[in-house]
Amino acid sequence: MLLEGVRVIEWSDRLAGAFCARILADLGAEVIKIEPPGDGVLLSREPESVGTLLFAYANHGKRSVALDPGTALGAKLLRRLLDGAALLIHSQPPSVMADLGLAEAAPYAGNPALAVVSVTASGHDARVDTDLTLTHRAGYAYHQARPVTDPQTTPPLGGADREAPLAAGVAVAAAALWGLLVAEQTGIGPRIDCAQLDFMAHLLIDPLADYNRGERDFGRNRHDLRGTEIAGGLVWILPCADGLVMVSPREQHQWDRWVGLLGDPAWAEDRTICGDREARTEHWARLQDEMSVWTRVRSRREVSSLAQAAKVACFPISSPRDLLENEQLAHRAFFDTLQTSAGDDLAMPGLPFAVRTSSGRELPRGRCVQVPAFGEANHAVFGGLLAVSEPDHAG
Amino acid sequence: MRAEPAMPTSALAGVRVVDFSWVMAGPLATKMLAAMGAEVIKIESTTRPEHVKRYGWSSILNSGKKSCTINLAMPEGQGLLRRLVGMSDVLVENFSAGVLTKYGLGYEDLRNVRPDLIYVSASGVGRQGPQRDALAYGTLLQAYSGRAGMIAAPNPQLEAMGILPAWTDPVTAMWECTAILAAIRHRRHTGEGAFIDLSMLESTVALLPESLLREGLGAGGRAPGGNVDPEGAPSGCYRCDGADSWLMLSVRVDAEWAGLCQAMRRGELADDPRFQRHAARQENRALVEQLVAGWLSGVSAEAGERMLQEHGVPAARSRHVGDVVADPRFDAVFPVLEDGSRTIALPWADASGWRGNLHSAPDIGADNDYVFRTLLGLPADEIERLTESGVLR
């Protein structure tokens, strides 16, 4: 809807590139995915593996064209596709792009308005990296395990699930839309470089603030970093009858309402342990024990809803099962549904925002999504769109 | 004929953004819009402590914006804001539920003033649904989204659970920026505005599909771990020689295994049937990881990284922000501003290396004269009266 009339060509074996193009498809663009013969390590099309489903997550809503731009005919067909496209999302080296007439400095002769987005691990430096080595190299992993009680035995932490390449993919989508706006204004599509390494470094907001304040040591030892911990004062983890919650009565008025909810127990009168945030931070362990007496006999749901009713921020610590059953997410139709070849319905996340235009049109949510079969659009794209005769694209 | 390169700064020229957002997600999104050429006007108030106190990251997140002070709890302030929105294109906010509606500044009020307004409302769990009034912080949402529990088993000290540094906030900003740019493109083609209801919870969960798919498929979850590379064996973050010295590596294919054996000077292991193929290495994961751990414990992280990279093995030592800033490769990522501080550029570059228009952050109210006199056309005595009566504070 928002990107009606925008044709995107995706030729990327990186998850960030594929996910960027899927977001653009969600927003209404027509996305044609170029798939050369042979599978990547991660995004395989093996039947019903987790890898297949990740492929589905990153590629639903696109059209698939089986095409090998490494052959003369494949390169010619790709150029024909690019002639009518607004955006190219790719993860190919500069030499391959130059062979296609897409050398770095000059606009694409066949279509100067084509915006070209290159998605790489770390630009074109001669290194090998994975999503996790990039996160450590960019500094994010180190700060994610800081402070800790024993830095000598507690490693820095890369992150969860596939979040690094997927988050980078969201940033690539923003970059691609910027390129589209520039191209539509000036008639010249920019060349854009998105390196996942740079993106991970962009997330170092709190650490860079510490750097700007003059900090240079950046040790991880909790003992040396007293006052910067978040446990207590800001946030507590509390046990409930059926799991854990996190609660954050950080402001004084929130703390007052929180202990009121707990029935104004006697310990809450002791100003030396909870008179202000500093005292609460210092005595976090004692307060944890005291508060647990109240939470331990209640469910996560009861604790978090009572706290929220008292205007105190509190949520359960979720498991994947909790999320699939989460009422808030269900009410907002956050999950799309994918039907597997076995006939099961699988939930997968959709876009994290709802859009309603001033004329009342809405981006669809809670969709039934489909994964394109390998090369399913060859006939339509080459026969219809490009008016290429059948023998030219057969095989 | 060779066309001239595009003028990158022009993308959002002429786009005015009224920015009510605070903390991190909204300000990072509007900072990116400012870097792309939009005029971003922060609405602040000296009556609000959270505006007066500039946190360490304020200067990073507010670079390139304007700031004016209006007390939006006062009816005259609300009237001025309605006029300002009438001459603006985008409004961004992340107040608690109902705050702006209470002041007559909700989407339904303002679309009458500006029918093609793009109104972006970001919140913890979304503006619709049974929990829409929930009070939320990014730290808590990192646990509510499931992320924290995937990274580590929860512990009362909240250590090494991925609670800090902020994750949910900056990734929400990436989604927010993407949604706004798409809405601007739609507006330029159709003249339509839009209401965008963005959830920080969903922004985080949308990046965790594998865990949800495994659960849905009954494939079994993974044990918590922040350095799990399912495609690698060996893989992990290994302790190296030296204080707090760590190296992340991952061996995904047989050629990388051969490279690792060479780096370790254990060439004979490359052909050992226990390790030669990926499937065998996964089966003997404990043994193979013990070999690597033994080798790296006697090698510095720098030397280990160099030797592994020379032999084509993905490896990187874990670095802190000081090391990263000192690496010349990141000079353009963390540029130095007029005031000497470092900020964070756009997460992409064009062919000329341009990464956004970046300038120092404004002091609170630094652009009052521009907003009240130049834009709203208020006479000096009226500005003085409104300032005295607390409206423009």
Please tell me about this protein's structure.
The complex is a heterodimer of chains A (395) and B (393). Chain A is of the alpha/beta class and 395 residues long. Chain A is built from 18 helices and 13 strands. Chain A has 2 domains: 7-202 and 334-393, Crotonobetainyl-coa:carnitine coa-transferase, domain 1 (Rossmann fold), CATH 3.40.50; 236-317, formyl-coa transferase, domain 3, CATH 3.30.1540.10. Helices cover 39% and strands 16% of the residues of chain A. In chain A, strands 3-2-1-4-5-6 form a 6-stranded parallel β-sheet. A 3-stranded antiparallel β-sheet of chain A has the order 7-8-9. In chain A, strands 11-10-13 form a 3-stranded mixed β-sheet, with no helix packed on it. The longest helix of chain A has 24 residues, at 163-186. The radius of gyration of chain A is 26 Å and the shape is elongated. The two termini of chain A are 34 Å apart. Mean pLDDT of chain A is 91; it is low at 40-47. In chain B, the strands form 2 sheets. Chain B has a 6-stranded parallel β-sheet, with helices on both faces. Chain B is an alpha/beta fold and 393 residues long. Chain B has helices at 25-35, 49-52, 58-61, 75-86, 99-102, 107-113, 138-144, 147-151, 168-190, 200-205, 209-217, 254-263, 278-283, 285-296, 301-310, 321-326, 368-375, 380-388, and strands at 16-19, 39-44, 66-69, 90-93, 118-123, 194-199, 235-239, 246-250, 315-317, 349-350. The chains are: A alpha/beta (395), B alpha/beta (393). The interface between A and B is large, with 156 and 156 residues. Strand 6 of chain A pairs antiparallel with strand 10 of chain B.
